[in-house]
Amino acid sequence: MLPVSEQLIAVNLASKLRAISDNLASAAQYGAQTAHRLSALANSEVAKVDDANPLARESVEAMKGVAVLTKLANDSASIALNLLNANKDTIKELNSEEPRSSVGANVSPEQLKEAVQSVQAKF
């Protein structure tokens, strides 16, 4: 067991790490909301492109706006995407493993049978 002074340091550090996690989660949420709004704006801007003449001056200007808005949207989403991908490999590894049960791992079938019978006898 740690001395009290070191326990306080550990508790303070854990508190700071929780605050960092909370703030980054909030930043990710705001970034995702910003990305959503910018993507919607880019989508409305692309409607200004003339399908019959996409290289017309007005269409090119609209496409420049779409490109800028899309780039900003993607940049805004980066924190959220990084957080979502942070544990991707760990989750993939956990999902690929055979399920392990700690219940009865070191118990013989006879011992398990005795335990069940003991519980049933009480009822």
List keywords for this structure.
76% helix; 123 residues; 5 helices
Computed CA radius of gyration, to the nearest angstrom: 28 Å
Report how far apart the termini are.
42 Å
How many β-strand stretches?
0
Percentage of residues in helical conformation: over 70%
Number of helices: 5
- SSE pattern, N- to C-terminal: HHHHH
Number of domains: 1
Report the structural category. mainly alpha
Explained architecture:
- By secondary structure, this protein is mainly alpha-helical.
- The protein has one domain.
- The chain contains five helices and no strands.
- The chain has helices spanning 4-46, 57-76, 78-85, 88-96, 109-122.
- The model has no long low-confidence stretch (mean pLDDT 89).
Write the layout of secondary structure elements.
Elements: H1 4-46, H2 57-76, H3 78-85, H4 88-96, H5 109-122
Helix pairs in contact: 1-2, 1-3
Question: What's this model, at a glance?
Answer:
With 123 residues, this protein is an all-alpha fold.
